Structures are given as C-alpha cells and as structure tokens.
Amino acid sequence: MRMKGKTVLITGAASGIGFAMAKRFIEEGAVIAACDYNEEALERAKKEMGDFYHLYKMDVSKHDEVKEMVKKIISDLDKIDVLVNNAGVTKDNFLVKMPENDFDAVIAVNLKGVYNITKAVVPYMMERKSGVILNASSVVGIYGNIGQTNYVASKAGVIGMTKTWAKEFARYGIRVNAIAPGFIKTPMTSKVPQKVIDHMNSKTPLGRMGEAIEIANAYLFLASDEASYITGQVLGVDGGLVV
Asked: pLDDT of 89-110, one tens digit each?
C-alpha cells in the first residue's frame, strides 16, 4: 500500500477529481483530511468513504479561515504528509464580456486559494523536513483557451508557483509538482454542450474525455515514494490533447 501511514489533505474533496482522488488514496492506505466549501457534499462523500475520510468545511479563498482550519487538522490528525490543491471554479466568458467580479472570484479560489493553504501547511512540513505538495493546473494553463481568461490566468499562475516552491522547499525535503488535466468528466464539465465535447474529443488523439480516476492515479504516483526524485514538474494527463 503506497500511502500507508500518510495523511493527505485534499481541497475540493467532495466531488469530481477530488472525490476520486480521496477514494484512491484511501485504497492505498492514506488518511484523508477532506476539505470543501460544500458541507452537504462532504457528508454524502463520508457515507461512501468511511472512517478514513475526515471532514473539514473550508473556503480556500479566505486566508484566516484556512489558517485556523489547518491548525485544527494538525491537532486532529497530527500531521500533513501530502497537500493536494485541487479546489477550483470556472466562470467562463469572452474578455470583453467578463465582469470584474467573475475574474476576481476565479483568481480568489484557483490561485490565491493555493497560496493560502500552502502557506498555512508548509511550515509544518518544513518542521518535519518532508512533504509533498501537488497543485491542480490545466492544459489550458499551458496553451490558453478562448473564453477562459480568468481560468487560464489562474492555472498558469499555479504552474509558476509550483516551479518556484519546488526550488524554495527542496532544502526541506519537500517536493512540489502539478498535474495539468485535459478534458475530464466531472461535475464541472457536465453542463458543457455536446457539440463542444465532440469538438474537444476530435482534437484529442485518444478520442475521448478522461475519467476522474485517471487523474487520481497520476496524483497518487506523484504523491508516492515512486516519484521521490521528481519535483518542479507539470505532468499533462490529457490524452494527447492539442489545444
């Protein structure tokens, strides 16, 4: 069991990729600190996950709330071996039609949220001189995408922070990497029109959308000791997608 004895904090853990990831990590022996702003979704997930899935309601965009909740997690579970910054939102629109508050909302969760929780968690990892931080970027953070100025900016920023933190924290035995998923079946993509899905599938060499479990497996690899000499990298899990 690759994660036996490890405590893993996952944001956005109540649904989609975060849910699949929590389930996969538990299968490999991990204890999960499941963080999400949706308390009802967390409770539903708990019924399936069982005793190794510990619930923490958290809005990652709120600095003080994050700081206090991380303290509680450390108090409850003693340590955080792996942090997965998975929480994210979209508010897509063309730039000329994008309200300022929609830009700010996406940056607050997808970018500042990663800053908030990593800043709260990493001192504990530094003290232990070990840890893994995994960030959720996106293929569009590398290549850009029409109608997603805010989302692309946030995911490109996550790549920059990943590479910076890999350099800053290496001396403390902390590895930092990112996953850049392609077009994945999640609640976030469930409302996408079929014609858009067909278009994206036509541009993906493997010819289909990815499954959440396929992203979860990539996170599991990077979190495990099998990836002990990998840091500062962005792993694309996108079916060969050409944007």
From this structure: 999 999 999 999 999 999 999 9
CATH number at residue 59: 3.40.50.720
**Is residue 243 situated within a structural domain?**
no
Domain extent, residue 136, equals 7-234
Instruction: Give every strand in the sheet of 31-36, ordered side by side.
Output: 53-57, 31-36, 7-11, 82-85, 131-136, 174-181, 234-237
> pTM for this structure?
0.96
How many domains are contained in the chain? 1
Query: Choosing from 151, 172, 219, 229, which is the catalytic residue?
Result: 151
Q: Is 151 a catalytic residue?
A: yes
Q: Which two tokens stand for residue 55?
A: 């619930």
Choice between 62 and 195, residue whose per-residue pLDDT is larger: 62
In degrees and rounded to multiples of 5, residue 139 shows phi and psi of -60, -30
